[in-house]
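Below is the data:
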Amino acid sequence: MQISRGPGQRPGPASPPGTSRRTARPRKPLCRTAPHPRSSPKRQEHAMPTPTHAIFNRPLDTPTPPGFEEIVLGMGCYWGVERLFWQQPGVFLTEVGFAGGTVPNPTYKQVCGGRTGHAEVVRVVYDPSRISTEQILKLFWENHDPTQGNRQGNDVGDQYRSAIFTTTDSQLAAAEMTRVDYGNRLAVEGYGRITTQIAPLDHFWRAPEDLHQQYLHKVPDGYCALRGTGVQASQASALHEAATGEIDGNPEPSPSSTGGSSVAAGGAA
């Protein structure tokens, strides 16, 4: 795993896999730099100093403290996702960027143009003694629609796919276990199969446009499309107990998740 430091209504009948019932809502402007009254229309190509987090007041390349963990999550447009996680007690650092593709040092325009294979993601560094991996994943599942394939709402493209990129075996085990559990709950409510990509993190590329970091703090009325399904995930404490001691990436499913439909990791890639 590498990290680049450089430049709730109840649904109706089940929809086909990869689809969801959604009311119309605004779409993120495609391939445009985040609007700001002082922003230049031309992207700065030169290397810039590492930005400081606008909320936590620490550099984005601050080393992960001993005992802390990091996980990388894709839930559609990354602006709202980052805000969700910087608001959580126990989260040490967040930053937006790209993962899951093949192009090094991608720009925002390249990614939203669909030429890189990357997803828009948020890197979350957290203290597991204050917020567990299962609590992080509960927020992940409940705050977007993981059945939509290569889109979230009106934001369409594989850069908006649902994804979990893990950095430890225990995270990978928890991601797989919670996916089965939440998939069962979605099925009861009439949703299709989960399309979330789950894989170990290969490389995280920080978004080079500084304004995109903590964007909704800098532009409070900016675009945010983060929406959940209204279906609640299992309590994180119960899932944490079920996962205790399972660090080989193959935990036994809890009784409530037995019989869930199998979902291929990377189905949305």
User: Anything to note?
Assistant: The domain at 67-248 is CATH 3.30.1060.10 (Peptide Methionine Sulfoxide Reductase; Chain A). Strands lie at 2-4, 69-75, 91-99, 119-126, 151-152, 155-156, 162-166, 197-200, 203-206.
